[in-house]
Design goal:
Elements: H1 12-17, E1 24-28, H2 40-48, E2 51-54, H3 60-66, E3 73-75, H4 81-93, E4 97-101, H5 113-122, E5 126-130, H6 135-143, E6 150-155, H7 160-170, E7 176-181, H8 186-197, E8 201-206, E9 214-219, H9 220-229, E10 236-240, H10 255-264, H11 269-280, H12 284-291
Parallel strand pairs: 1-4, 1-5, 2-3, 2-4, 6-7
Antiparallel strand pairs: 7-10, 8-9, 8-10
Helix pairs in contact: 4-5, 7-8, 8-9, 10-11, 11-12
Bound molecules: S-adenosylmethionine (SAM).
Length: 293
């Protein structure tokens, strides 16, 4: 991949913009399992920066080796982020360029990257982000749940009291909720989720982009039974259906009864279908088909 050539799709300005600049931190998204999930631009930047700051200096070399990249690595992780952040910034201030990569996915999403970004901003260092794989977004798109409005919770706290309090808050959330969970905590989290959320639907997105990728949608009670029988293995993202923000009483009736309620209140049949469809968040055609069965 030549960095100098301007290809026919790329304007001259774009190719200049893509040149690696000194005194710049590049946040480079890396694969979350499948090593081919990396962009051309990411490979180019990793090949051209002065050094790479990596969360896991044992894991990142596998990726670099696949793409024939040889670069000095500096470790940057939760337990050395203070001292190492200062060191990285001092090298950036002296004119070098640095790519930050995490163990997997997009730096600064549920990893210490956010601290380095904040430090660079504070010290006037330019930061730019190369988009790519992120487990949360990959899971959301596969979940089959609403993607219209969603929120990302990341890892739940493990302190019992605060975990329960946080889940009580989250249970009211009407947007789709995305959480990260480690396999050895999954069963305990499912019990806590069931207690706070009731029998909500959840998509269990596991080993995304890997050979054993799976996205199973189950209610929480089904999931508790399933994972008590089948020990959770691999990496998980849980995508949880948002709380229903419509009055529950209206759904304790069938679609036919719902339409009839509006007719009884004096609406025409078509207006009753429209109103019931709106309440239920369904297309009118679905309600129409249901009452004409
Ligand atoms: N920065 C990463 C990102 O952009 O998604 C997330 C890093 S966080 C430390 C790691 C968590 O992401 C895992 O515990 C898991 O919940 C989720 N994760 C990462 N890779 C995954 C995969 N291939 N399949 C499912 N979940 C994954």
């Amino acid at each position: 991949m030549s960095s100098k050539k301007t290809n026919e799709w790329e304007s001259k300005d774009q190719s200049e913009h893509n040149r690696v600049e000194p005194m710049t931190l590049y946040l480079v998204a890396t694969p979350i399992g499948n090593l081919e999930d990396i962009t051309y631009r990411a490979v180019k930047v990793l090949s051209e920066v002065d050094f790479i700051a990596a969360e896991d200096t044992r894991n990142t070399p596998k990726l670099l080796q696949k793409y024939g990249i040889k670069k000095p690595l500096v470790s940057y992780f939760e337990h050395n982020k203070r001292e190492r952040g200062e060191y990285i910034v001092s090298r950036l201030e002296s004119g070098e360029s640095c790519a930050l990569v995490t163990d997997a996915g997009t730096p600064a999403i549920s990893d210490p990257g956010e601290d380095l970004v904040a430090l660079c901003i504070e010290r006037g260092i330019k930061v730019t982000s190369l988009p790519g794989a992120c487990a949360a977004i990959t899971a959301l798109t596969l979940s089959g749940l609403s993607t219209k409005r969603f929120c990302f919770e990341g890892f739940l706290t493990y302190a019992k009291g605060s975990k329960k309090a946080r889940l009580q808050e989250l249970a009211k959330e009407t947007r789709t909720v995305i959480i990260y969970e480690a396999p050895h905590h999954l069963c305990a989290t499912l019990d806590d989720l069931y207690e706070a959320f009731g029998d909500r639907r959840v998509a269990f997105c596991r080993e995304l982009t890997k050979i054993n990728e799976e996205a199973k949608i189950m209610t929480l009670s089904e999931a508790i039974a399933y994972y008590n029988e089948n020990k959770p293995r691999g990496e998980f993202v849980l995508v949880i259906e948002g709380a229903d923000d419509k009055p529950q009483a209206e759904f304790d009736m069938s679609i036919k009864e719902h339409v009839q309620k509006y007719i009884d209140e004096g609406k025409s049949k078509m207006d009753a279908i429209k109103a019931a469809a709106k309440d239920r968040g369904l297309p009118k055609s679905t309600v129409y088909a249901e009452i004409n069965k």
